[in-house]
Amino acid sequence: MKEKVKKPIDVLTRPLQRFKKHEHSGGIVLGLSVVLALILANSSWSDNYFQLLHNEVGFQFNDISFLKYNLQLWVNDGLMAMFFFVVGLELKREFVAGELANPKKALLPIGAAIGGMLVPALIYFSLNPTGEASAGWGIPMATDIAFALAVMHLLGKRVPPSLKVFLMALAIIDDLGAVLVIALFYSSDIVVQNLLIGLGFVVLMILGNKMGIRNIWFYAILGIGGAWVAFLLSGVNATIAAVLAAFTIPADVGIKENIYIERVKQSINKFSTIAPKEGPTLSTEQLDVLETVKKDTNSAIPPLQRLEYAIQPFVTFFVLPVFALANAGVSLSIDVQELFSSNVLLGVGLGLLIGKVIGIVGFTYLLVKLKIAAYPSGMNLKNLIGTSFLASIGFTMSIFITSLAFTSEIYITQAKIGIFSASILGGIIGYFFLRFVNRSALKL
After folding, report:
1. 276: in domain
2. How much is the average pLDDT of 374-389?
3. Over the stretch 218-250, which tens digit does the pLDDT of each residue have?
4. Is residue 332 part of a domain?
5. How many domains, in total, are found in the chain?
6. Structural domain of residue 288, as residue ranges?
7. Could you report the per-residue pLDDT of 138-156, keeping only the tens digit for each?
8. What are the backbone dihedrals phi and psi of residue 188, each rounded to the nearest 5 degrees, phi first?
9. Residue 412 and residue 167 in contact, taking contact as beta carbons nearer than 8 Å
10. Residue among 39, 144, 109 nearest 419 (CA)
């Protein structure tokens, strides 16, 4: 049997394909995008950079404008809807058949996530109790799973697998909490009629799921053209529509595994009996068999996982880097006195770096001591502290909430610098803490 013929394009794309498969590659691309945004915002191109973000894009019919928003808002409410859609798919998968499906196993990361959201919010609010600055209490609640897992990946076998699972489950619950916070506290001037229309489309998608509709286009058209647009016009953050739409995607298979295996065997046997056509193309009979295999394969994969697998690379290597380019650009020409003209920077920085650690470690330790939950294999108080520092890396969701919380450019700049500072320190401390703890453990 001949091997696949290697084409020149294969040689060129192979390094990129290998890079994409690494767990930490998304964090690297996101980090480079942050650096590029900071360079653009503090270079001779800064005026062009900020002007581009404020250019309005929309639809024009004669004198009527529709969905006309600036480019930054299209990124935050449009492109980021893809990110939130993937978050919704991950959440549903975890609740259906993942770490969060077992209530006993889920209890510890759920408790840790709640602590990791409440304590940072309280620290921030205690420093910023009044005025517009108080609206930023949701900023230090978030954990950026891409960056946190990228740092943990660098530790390799120095950390037990249970820590990675714990961190992933915690971050997923954290994302759910952030989504709820955005929906309940960062939506304004709600147009109830549009909201009800959006929810109506979501109900139609749920009914489609119950009826057994597995066609992805059905959910795409109703989700984007219906729910997303209606939510955008309602005043409720449009990314919430993406999460709700994700929860309507079927998570069951069309044909069971044993039936799929038998069907594929029959197709392979049939394919082998068909006389091959001369030349590089296939015969009609061969195409029919392969099409049957394709349909059976699609039926054997839950639409939820098929969508998640298909969209995840696009979100990781395009949506999040573009979001970083559009939102991480901060002019560093601000003087120190102006930087600390309010407690926003301190609230965000201390909330993430200190609040996350106190909340996660405190709630987890309490659950274990009260024997409500138990540490997973290989996890202990020491490496829990290191993991909680990694959870203080709160980039993507924190910056997103910053864009919703403030209109003041000073507050936005203060919040972003607080996010960058705490995230960098949290990543460094978490890395060295976990490395030191594991090395010392080997000596015991």
Report:
1. yes
2. 89
3. 998 999 889 998 988 888 888 889 989 999 999
4. yes
5. 2
6. 257-299
7. 999 988 877 887 788 778 7
8. -140, 165
9. no
10. 144
